[in-house]
Amino acid sequence: xxxxxxxxxxxxxxxxxxxxxxxxxxxxxxxxxxxxxxxxxxxxxxxxxxxxxxxxxxxxxxxxxxxxxxxxxxxxxxxxxxxxxxxxxxxxxxxxxxxxxxxxxxxxxxxxxxxxxxxxxxxxxxxxxxxxxxxxxxxxxxxxxxxxxxxxxxxxxxxxxxxxxxxxxxxxxxxxxxxxxxxxxxxxxxxxxxxxxxxxxxxxxxxxxxxxxxxxxxxxxxxxxxxxxxxxxxxxxxxxxxxxxxxxxxxxxxxxxx
Length: 258
Fold this sequence. Notes:
Elements: H1 3-22, H2 25-80, H3 84-161, H4 163-190, H5 193-219, H6 239-257
Helix pairs in contact: 2-3, 3-4, 5-6
């Protein structure tokens, strides 16, 4: 094999492969349907011309038939009148008209056959076009479905072994770490010394309010003779109380840490 033939083969193979990659079956089928539909007006025009020829020949045949009858009448009238010269002239015209009539009759018959064949061919083409169009639409639908399935398969592959899977896992771990850290901070804050001191202060305030209530009831004589307000009252503002509370909180914190 010569060098030129090898280069030609390589070029044709490369061109064919490139065309296969860029060729869209859906677009090709749609264009084929448009081309088939565009040919229908051309076929209709061709059929119309054949039918027009048939009708024209039929009209000529009718005129020639009328002319033959008219010439025959004129010949008979001329003979009756003894005008053989005129009758002879009419006979010549009659013979020519009869020849034209025979030729036109044959042509009209052929035109009628051609017209029927043209109509049949046009109808067959339209029927075939509709059938091909339906097949093309089915193929186009199948091509769209195949394309959708390919995209779905690519998406599933991405979730299975692609970078997106590792990204999701990484982000999930980061979010889990942030949630765990936030929960730990919240738990630490709820068990801190300040939080415990606030709880103790609220309890002390409740005790003071209860003692004050008992004092008012005692002053108003609403308590029994043997009932006295509790002697122990907590002064929230006294330094001694605050020191005792702080020592208690620190002791509890140390016990919890141990």
